[in-house]
Amino acid sequence: MKLKGRISLIISITLVLFSSLLGGIIYLKVTNIIDMKIQSELNTNSNMGLLILDKKYQGQWKVQDGKLYKGENLINNDSSVIDEVREKTGMYATIFMGDTRVATNIKDKDGNRSIGTKANSDVVDTVIKNGKNYDGKVNIQGNEVKSHYVPLKDDSGNIVGMWFVGIAQEDVLKQLTEMAVYIAGFSLILILIGGFIATRIAKYITKDLEVLQKDIASFSSGDFSIKMNHKLLTRKDEIGQISKAVESMQSGIKDIVGNVIEETRAIESNVDTINERLNRLNVDIESISSTTEELSAGLEQTSASAYEMNETSSAIESKVEETSEKAKSGKLASREIKLRAEELKVKAVNSQKVAKDIYDKTQKNMIVSIEKSKSIEKVKILSETILKIAAQTNLLALNAAIEAASAGEAGKGFSVVADAVRSLAENSQNAATEIQNITKQVIESVDELAENSQNMLEFMDNTVFEDYKTFVQTGEQYREDAVFVEGLVADFSTTSEELARSINNMVTTINEITSAANDGAIGSTNIAEKTIAMVDSINTLVKEAKNTKESSDRLEDSISEFKV
């Protein structure tokens, strides 16, 4: 017999033995699996049946008048749930009262339900007496059945019956027989395939030299990716030694070429990664440069706006200082008015005291007093001056409010101060107007007094003292008005000084903002210049990376003829 026939026979016998052993093992394993599967199905279907009973019949199990109930539902001869279990699972199901069947889907040879028959004694001992589940084979109506029994208990925990599900052993054997047929068929197919493979292997072994020659030819063409036959390498003759030498040569060259290819690809991958990252970095830096330039321009614009605000604030500060000086002058004038009013009051009192004794002297003093009373015109002039100052202050406050509005957020504080100044100016104007009105009344009274002085002298004995009293009261009111004007002007002066200090602080703050904005603009410009220099450096790196990739591509083209 040729080597090819011997090899085929040995492999075929081995396959037959292996298939038989494998088939037996598989049959045993499958039998155990089927038993476990059937037991699992019994447990599952048993639980399902109990759930159906609990859902359909509410209440506890109980025995009443020799019959089995669940809640208020009579179970004896009620096969609805039993038949539903049979329909869904194909299994037997029975409800026992004690050891006697009262509802079942098991039928005898005549097709009648096996109501009233007893359970197996082993089952009764395990379930009824010991209160445990029973799993095992039982004989029912001459048929062997794989069964699962569960005790049924009343609300006191006493066992009143059993719940049974089972499957005929005949059905189990049918499944095992079908599986055995499948295993035998699979083994036969495996043997046939094994015989065919054995024939092919034998044919392959006889052509070892041809295979070796083809491998060497592939190596000579640069293809080191093929794998040499293992049996050639395990041969003990010259062919085996040559095969080992060829394999050693293949392995050495393959490792060298493989390392070169891997390093080339790694270089190419790194270069691509570097190019990609450098390009992204270049885009990011250009974006940073553009943003920095915009920031620098914005800071320069901010600096210019702050400078304009500084100039405007300085002008406002000058106006406020001028207003403060005028307010001080008005304060001095109001003090002089007060002094004159007090002097007028003193003279009126003295005149009243001597009027009764010296008529001629009283007449002369009256004329002098009338002449002196004309000094009230100065009050009118001073009140007009105050009105002018109030009008100028109001105009200044309006201009300050306009400047504060144009300054935006930076001018909000100054806007509040401008409103306060405008309010003070309006109050001053109202007070001055009131003073003019009073002064007008006084002037009119003095004129009237001059016109009727002769008549008053004639009736001096009867009415002069009352007239002097009135004159004294008028002097007192004049003094009080002067005090009021003095306080009003003093408040105005104080407010002007506070406004000047606030504007001075605002000017200082604006100067600091201007300085900070200038520093920021210079720093942003330096950053933009350095960013541009960095972009140039990155562009140089990109060019170097491209040169490296070109070198790598040339090396890869050189070794692409080798296959590993």
TrEMBL record:
InterPro entries: HAMP_dom (IPR003660), MCPsignal_dom (IPR004089), sCache_3 (IPR033463), Sensor-like_sf (IPR029151). Gene3D superfamilies: Methyl-accepting chemotaxis protein (1.10.287.950). Belongs to the methyl-accepting chemotaxis (MCP) protein family. It is a multi-pass membrane protein. It is found in: Cell membrane. Residues 263-528 form the Methyl-accepting transducer domain. Keywords: Cell membrane, Membrane, Transducer, Transmembrane, Transmembrane helix. Coiled coil: none annotated. It comes from Clostridium manihotivorum. This is Methyl-accepting chemotaxis protein. Residues 203-258 form the HAMP domain. The chain crosses the membrane at residues 179-198. GO terms for cellular component: plasma membrane. One of its GO terms (biological process) is signal transduction.
